[in-house]
Amino acid sequence: MIVITPEKGLVMKCSTDADVEPSVVAQKVYYYTRDKNMTESELINVAVSDAGVRPTLYWFHDKGFFEEYLGHKEDLNKHPLQMYQRPVLEKVAQNLAEMHKVSVPDINQGKYKEWVTDGGLGQYRPLYSYL
After folding, report:
1. How far apart (Å, rounded) are the C-alpha atoms in residues 112 and 128?
2. What angle do CA 59, 61, 62 make, to 5 degrees?
3. Tens digit of each residue's pLDDT (9 = 90 or more) over 1-23
4. Residues 22-68 pLDDT 10s
5. What is the pTM of this model?
6. Could you tell me the residue range of the domain that residue 117 belongs to?
């Protein structure tokens, strides 16, 4: 079942009745990967998953990956008043800080934490934008 079709790829819910764990996963498949370093993307995703600060990563392939299905989570955009309450914002900030503390061996992490220019506007390109 296709869950979402963002501009860069598909997210599909995959499930089975077989006696396996997990029985439900999400598969993310990119439409194309020519603009991505999939080797570094895998290293980043594995390190952040192992640190417990992203959905559990089960399997990486050349066009994307399988990860924990988050169907039990609720989109805070459906509750805009709750989304901007201080405890929620503090938890988001804490989670992002934890993600940025993760060490990713074998890559230059600095290039994922640099200031880039896009159309004349400066923009921070954080590590999590490559997940």
Report:
1. 9
2. 165
3. 666 667 788 889 999 999 988 99
4. 999 999 999 988 888 888 889 988 998 999 988 899 999 999 999 99
5. 0.70
6. 2-130
| Cβ atoms within 10 Å of 9's Cβ, excluding its own | 17
Q: Can you spell out the DSSP letters for the chain?
A: -EEE--TTEEEEEEE-SSS-SSSEEEEEEES--TTS-HHHHHHHHHHHHHTTSSSPEEEEETTEEEEE--TTS--GGG-HHHHTSHHHHHHHHHHHHHHHH---TTS-GGGGSEEEEETTEEEEE-GGGG-
Using an 8 Å Cβ cutoff, are 123 and 60 in contact?
A: no
Q: What is the pLDDT of residue 61?
A: 92
d(CA 58, CA 49): 9
Domain count, the chain: 1
Joined together, the tokens standing for residue 54 give 């992203």
Residue 45 in tokens: 């995703």
Token code pair at residue 50 = 């192992």
Question: Which pLDDT value is given to residue 131?
Answer: 46
